[in-house]
Amino acid sequence: MSALEIVAVVLAGVGAGAVNSIxxxxxxxxxxxxLVIGYSPVVANASNTLGVVPxxxxxxxxxxxxxxxxxxxxxxxxxxxxxxxxxxxxxxxxLPSGVFKAVVPILIGIACLLVIxxxxxxxxxxxxxxxxxxxxxxxxxxAATFLVGVYGGYFxxxxxxxxxxxxxxxxxxxLQRVNGTKNVLAATANTVAAVAFIIAGRVAWxxxxxxxxxxxxxxxxxxxxxxxxxxxxxxxxIVVVGALTIARFL
Length: 250
Known about the structure:
mainly alpha; 10 helices; globular
């Protein structure tokens, strides 16, 4: 990798870490960069999944205040993310690479659509009255979280926004508390998928480590200053990058 490519990957990692902490879909910043510098979609996806894990963890830690009183509930719900992340990673590793190349434009399109409608999801959550954390996990919530985990293990773009929608439908919590839960669940699915990709030898370590360094910084900054950043600007950037990536594939 050239010096310019290294800088581009690190900066994309910073952006991904911040975006994932605030709204989700940071993969739409890092994944296209890896494609542009010459990595195949399969290697780019596996490497990116590993790279965003540190940022996701820092983002989850940054929302620890919002997670107060929810530890038992979130840890139990994370089981669904673990199972889903494993299932998604196994699908990614077992299906022919041509399948992934074919569905990537569709997945990115779905993620971009979710980014566009995210303000409506956020408004819906913000209007709902806050209450104490749910003490039980309904079968519907567990199943929906599992399915989002499958998506996240296969391709992570938009996973965070999917989780915001799912949690908003099933929980009576404030937006910030839901966002904290979302960060934990997304980090969980990404982590188990990354382990599977490492074992399978699909990870390119240089870009993965560069993204990890950048996403760590972004995750910390995103969690700390998320309420002060312009989500409209971030949303616009994600949609533009996603559209360009779809155009490149097509």
